[in-house]
Amino acid sequence: MARLADYFVVVAFSPGKRGNGDGQGQILQRFPEKDWEDNPFPQGIELFCQPSGWQLFRERNPPTFFIAVLTDINSERHYCACFTFWEAIDRSQLQNRLRKDEEEEEEEEEVAAPVQPAQLFAPKSLVLVSRLDHAEVFRNCLGLVYTIYVDGLSTSLETVIGNLLTCTIPIMGGSQRTISLGAGDRQVIQTPINDSLPISNCSVALLFRQLGITNVLCLFCAALTEHKILFLSSSYQRLTDACRALLALMFPLKYSFTYVPILPAQLLEVLSTPTPFIIGVSSAFQSETQELLDVIIADLDGGTVTVPECIHISLLPEPLLHRTREALSMVLDPGLEIADLAFPPSTISASSLKMQDKEIRAVFLRLFAHLLQGYRWCLHIIRIHPEPVIRFHKAAFLGQRGLVEDDFLPKVLEGMAFAGFVTERGPPYRETDVFDELVANEAQRMQADEGSKVRVLQHIKELAEQLYKNENPYPAVTMHKVQRPTEGSHLRLHQRPFPRLDEGTIQWIVDQATAKLQTAPPVVRAERKCMVPSGPPLGTLMERNGLVLANSARRLEVVRNCISYVFESKMLEAKRLLPAVLRAMKSRLARQCLTQELNLHVQQNRAVLDHLQFDFVVRMMNCCLQDCSAADEHGVAAALLPLVTAFCRKLSPGITQFAYSCVQEHLVWTNLQFWEAMFYGDVQNHIRALYLEGTEENHLAQAGEEGSQEDGSILEIAALQCRLWPTMSPEKQRELIQKEESTVFSQAIHYANRMSYLLLPLDTSKNRLPRSSGLGDAESVSNSFITNSIAGSVADSYDTESGFEDAETSDVANYVVRFINRFVDKVCTESGVTNEHLKGLHVMIPDIVQMHIETLDAVHRESKRLPPIQKPKLLRPSLLMGEESVMDGLRVFLMPDGREEGAGGSVGGPPLLPAEGAVFLTTYRIVFKGTPVDPLVGEQVVVRSFPVASLTKEEKITAQAPVDQFIPEGCAQLQLRSCTFQLLRIAFDEEVASESVEIFRKHLQKLRYPQHIADTFAFTVGQSIKPALQPKAKEKNPSLRTISKNLVKNAKRTIGRQYITRKKYTPPPWEHRGGSQQPFPEDNEDEISVSEEVDRSTLTPATLTIRPSDKMTMSNLVERACCRDYQRLGLGTLSNSLTRSKNEPFRISTVNRMYAICRSYPGLLIVPQTIQDNTIQRISRCYRQNRFPVVCWRNSRTKAALLRSGGLHGKGVAGLFKSPNTPAPGPSQADSTSLEQEKYLQAVINSMPHYVDVGGGRNTLSGFTSAHMSSSDSSEKRQPKLGSLMKQVMGGKDPEGPGPVSRGGKWGSIRASGRTSSYALNMEVGSRLAGKELLGAPPNGSPSEASFLRQHRASLYIIGDKSQLRGVKPDPLQHWEVVPIEVFEARQVKTSFKKLMKACVPGNPSAEPSVAYLRSLEESEWLTQIHKILQISVLVVELLDTGSSVLVSLEDGWDITTQVVSLVQLLSDPYYRTLEGFRLLVEKEWLSFGHRFSHRGAQTLAGQGGGFTPIFLQFLDCVHQIHLQFPMEFEFSQYYLKFLSYHSVSNRFRTFLLDCDYERLELGLLYEEKGEGKGPQPFRSVWEYVERLNKKTPAFFNYMYAPEDSEVLRPYSNLSNLKVWDYYTQETLSEGPSYDWELAQGRPEPVEDPGPPDAGAPAPSRRRIVWPCYDNRRRVEPDAISRLLEELQNLEMELGQVPGRWKETWDKLKAFQRAEAQEDGGGGKGVSSALLMASSGLSHQRRSLGAYLQESGVGSSAINLSLDGDASSTSTPSSGKPGGRRSNTSTLYSQFQPAESENRSYEGILYKKGAFMKPWKPRWFVLDKTKHQLRYYDSRLDTECKGVIDLAEVESITPGTPTMGAPKMVDEKAFFDVKTTKRVYNFCAQDVLLAQQWIDRIQGCLSDA
């Protein structure tokens, strides 16, 4: 029984100091006046009666009622029911009181009271204080007291209040009690059946109505995860209800932090407390809450919840969150389910508010039952007597639930509320309630119900019924009878004040009742305690990833087999299975299986193994622990703990090494929480055994909290013991307490030993704890591996500043002692161990540790004497001729680096990495050679190597994650990255000393960055003494080298006579030259440019008498690649230039033969005939690096020239021409150019034949047209592309993308989807020669891009950088145009390349390799740069092909300029697409024109800072992209490009060394002696090597090579058309890079394994496994042609013939086939095999291959033929006469007549309108459904196709109209137009019927496609 009310208090208003209406509360009377012993009077009640402050009001307010909650120091809640009414107070009274107060305080100031009305009203409160929460009863009781007072009833107030204070009611039990206070009233109080369930009335339902489902769930999670929550409302009662509701939702957890439903204004600073709280505040104080940064504010009136940015609320885990929301919406909005029904039921059974309240609580009750399901299986009972002591194993619970990574549940389990839950609900013998039954008995039902909403709702309603019955046990309750005041009574004018009550009367009534209670017999409450049901254990949940595969029984079988092999000493079998076992350890079930299996092999706590067995077991244990977290959620470390102290090996007599000394490197051992859980689990088992003595189960259960029997029985035993405890005698009780205490104590000693085993390192002399990141330095270490619990637990109480590395040896011991002491203190205090025992433990621990250290020292000494494990023999790599070893093999492990090749993985095959072997450093390469550590692939050899010169980054790395089991931890690791896309991530073996590693790094650095270029491998190869630097011996005859030296001397001399001007570019310094090579003092100058006052005679060859040595120089210059190419192009010969033959527009100038004008240009240059050499001298200074414009190529058809130069100087060029000899400045000086320059450019323009033809006048439209109408082949179709191209290149957007344009040239075979729009046409640089009208006005707002809209095509376009050309204004009088474009700089290429390398060779395995790869690839922007280069190149090709010359003048003229110029020549001239031509192109444009290979490749020490910038590689990538689009146009294969890429950075050859011809000349490389490469000497030039190799093998040859004459290629450059080059991604681990041919070939073919040695064994199979990730597929499985050629060679050798050269065989083959094809008339019936056809030059074959080799869309056409008879005859202008060789266009179908006739779906005569200005002509048209095209011929009998319309490009067929020159006698309706993506074709049939038939047939074809 309990008192209904403890205290009754009257609180009144007391005026404040200033009389401004603000006052304070004052307790007038309280009853009883003395405090109850069991319940002292709560302080501060007067603050809570008026939470907003005590104030006077000008009018009477109606009475108010609310309940405030106060919490006392013992966490007891007191409910204060406050009933407030207002009483009149006179102003005079108020002032008198104020005056009296002031006199008392002797204040001098006058009272400045505001003017107030005559009457004011002050609040007065009646307060009931109770520990029971019966809100309605309190409201009625206080209302009755007020009614008696206000209505003046006869009943005495003292009697009513006395009765109220003496009324007692039962707390629980579901009884019903009627009370009366003696005023004719009657009230019925129902007590709840179970007081552990909260009473909520309607508060929960109201809270959901106010805030909504999501907001309340948010608050619920915030409260559980201990956030601060603040409610705001203008109603106090609402605040109380909301807080009560939130607490009711949290059941069965209890809120244990600050809980103040109504906070008074004076206490608002409480809101800034650091602890969590649930507080309600009147919304009047909303502004004060604004600056609270960490408080979640719920506004009940506005229905909003505000969560500050800095707070993250962890929500319920899915799918619980979704299920809870769904259930809540079913309860709160039952109409939602039927809202969409066509015939909704007429009535919806909506619950009453009270019932809805219980239903919501039922949803949350189910939620907790889900969350905490199976919690009793994770309880550890560590003491039963005198009181049960229970701990909860959080890690095991989370592990079993699979919620370790969850955000919400771990926080709840760490919280105070859950700690209280364990204390309250943990005991096994207590009263139970609805939650216990739900968790224990309804778990299965809840799981079964999940899918069905109806069943879930049914369960919710059942639970709600129980909750409702608990609050209202008697629903049909008798009516209350309580008097209420009359209406409006509070407004009476002359209401007397509340009377003063008689204390004596009330005290007498209270005393009487108290005496009566004391004499009454005590109420005996029936005990309802019972054993708490545990419910079903948690089922073994699937692992989070849900991979059934990972947990398959097969894997567990492998684990079992391996362990049994180990213990049966079948080591070979065990070794084979071990990698599979280690891989299986990723699965939790496999780890648990391992511990169970190992357990079977332990007898009497000991298992002695031999060394090999011990090694295996330890390795498996380590792997098992490696995947365990520090919390050990799955109990794997717990199960291994007894095993690591059981398995051991004998090292010597008396010395045994246990497994624990080898498994210390795991974080779990440093986690205090793990040790506590382990300890409690063991204690529980021992206490269970203690009470089971005498039964057969008297064996100690293994330490582990799994196993249902043990856990079930310990709870049962504990429940039984708790029930029997009161019946035992005191002696028996003491005995049991003492037994339990000594059990805990003995376990504490045992654990002190165990912890010292696992915490002390084997080698204590190293002053290092086992884990570098674990114990030693917990405060300073912020390693992600350390969980908070370790960091917290280690750092709280002990200072760890010393940082263990430098400390004394004893520090290890001290540290471990301190750690164990902390553990012992914690567990012993919690388990109730006596103080004496605890002190004894503290004395013992240092001794235990010291003793263990001594044992370990002996073990360590002996373990050192063990013979080392046999390591695999080091495999030596084969070396190139002349390659020498610098550092012999260092034993290393090659780690996986994120590429699939090494991992096997998705590419197929087992993992080849990590591999064990050695790293070798030679003068040329870094080589790793070894075997995979995985024994399954152990017989393979893994090779990874790259040239030292290609190393881009070398860094020491630390192991990011626990390294693979095979690799020892703590060893040095290096990562070496190469620009050949190789990465060596190596971990050095323990046996390799750190000094050796440093020496290796130093050697590597020295080889990578030699002092001088002459120290690179290309020079030092095969020479012990370097001949290049030998002392000068007397020469027999002057050799080329002498001449080159003389040439340099002459150059120096010439320069010496001139003024030297310093320029920006400094070549790598030559001071470090070794040997006795003669030094050149002048060479320390910067880039040399000749000043103005040069003696002209030194530069003009006309006046120069050439000395004999110079003549020799000239002849050598002439032999250079440039010169040979100039002669091929007909750009003039040397004799021409010397005799000044005027009929040639260009001449070869020797102005730079001394490299005096431009050091980075070649000696001979092509310049306009009319330009004098001395002019060149002046012009050169306008350009960067003196790289003035020179011609490098000329279009043989249009005679347009391609020029290259450096960019113009950034500063205005005019300033450079102010010397006396300069002519007067011309009008165009303001345009930052000079007369000389203009003259030069004009001379270039004049050299173009069409310009001269027109007579030098303006290149007007008509002039251009008349000059070119005849020769331009289908320029009508070429033109439209140009404008859009130009627009794209200049950075604008072509509105609808580039339209594919058919022309004589060739576009990539992927059709663009865009259409050429009028806007694109408007942007053309010249006029349209085809189509309907000339240029219209540009659309509004379109910029006139650098005067592109002129009506003529300029004769010369200057492609320049936007930033340089900013000052250049377009000059309408000039004949050239400037095309400003944006290009990227070299540093952007460098950055992009770095990112590309990281994308292709990541360095670290990533979780989602494909996603990461694509993301990195995009971020690198490499393909964007390729796209830009190709785009500019195609633009230049277009311009040249239409007859305009182009000057490419970008950056310094040696990077992007070189790329663009080379690509333009490659696309325009088929010669450069041959092996010979490509070599010439590279030699001319890259080597002679001075691309800075040394500088960009950082080849020497001087360039080290610059880094690697692969400009040349980027060019080769562009060539690769073009090769992919046009596979039949190139004589060389993709392998050739990869080969050049590799050797351009390898420094094996001298070709790609140095920055220009001048430097090569200086080193004597330029003109090497003929025949120097003879004999066994290594090759000096990559070209020689290729030539020799090409004779032996077709490796560089492209079998699909079938060129067309003068084919101009126009590749697509869109990003979607570009592919990542496989050079970046592929590698071959079987032999390393395949670009050093001798090394790759030297590897013998693996011998096939002989069959089993049976008598009847079959012949050994010749099949072998080819791994895509390991073998070189090109070599293992060559293509058919290579194989046939190889077989042919073998046959010749067998027949004793000298094998012929493969190229000769191939050429014969093709010639034979061509002849045969001509004889047969092309009917593919004869001998033509698939092989011959595939590679023949036949057009049909090449065309269809062209179409299908590209990954083009269906129906897209690679076959863009001329559509005009006229055009097709001139499509091969380079052949002397049009019929010289039948063009492919015309022979396309001539060979296939029989086949063709079958493909003629429909045919007949149509009139076709020719191109622009051409007449209508009748043609024989053939519709071919098979090839999806419309072909036309001159007549029916004609075999030569005149043109093809590809139906894939047809957009529409529309009725046409007759145009000028149309057939006269034909009906208008017989005309129709076919519109394609390129043009509109006008047709006319003989009559309307035929026209309709043609239209239908074509439409039918289109719809079939």
Tell me the Rg in angstroms.
Answer: 49 Å
What's the number of extended β-strand segments? 47
Uncertain regions: pLDDT < 50 for 5+ in a row? 106-116, 540-550, 694-712, 772-809, 1025-1043, 1052-1109, 1211-1233, 1252-1280, 1293-1305, 1308-1351, 1569-1576, 1643-1658, ...
**Beta-strand residue percentage:** 5-15%
Secondary structure: helix percent: 25-40%
The helix/strand class is: alpha+beta
Please outline the major beta sheet: 7 strands, antiparallel
Q: What number is the mean pLDDT?
A: 75
Number of helices: 60
How widely separated are the two ends?
93 Å
Biggest sheet, spatial arrangement of strands: 26-25-24-23-29-28-27
Features:
single chain; alpha+beta; seven-stranded antiparallel β-sheet; 60 helices; extended
Walk me through the structure.
With 1905 residues, this protein is α+β, with helices and mostly antiparallel strands. Helix content is 38%, strand content 13%. It is built from 60 helices and 47 strands. The strands form 13 sheets. Strands 26-25-24-23-29-28-27 form a 7-stranded antiparallel sheet, with helices on one face. Helix 3 packs antiparallel against helix 4 and helix 47 (1511-1525) runs antiparallel to helix 48. It is extended and about 140 Å long.
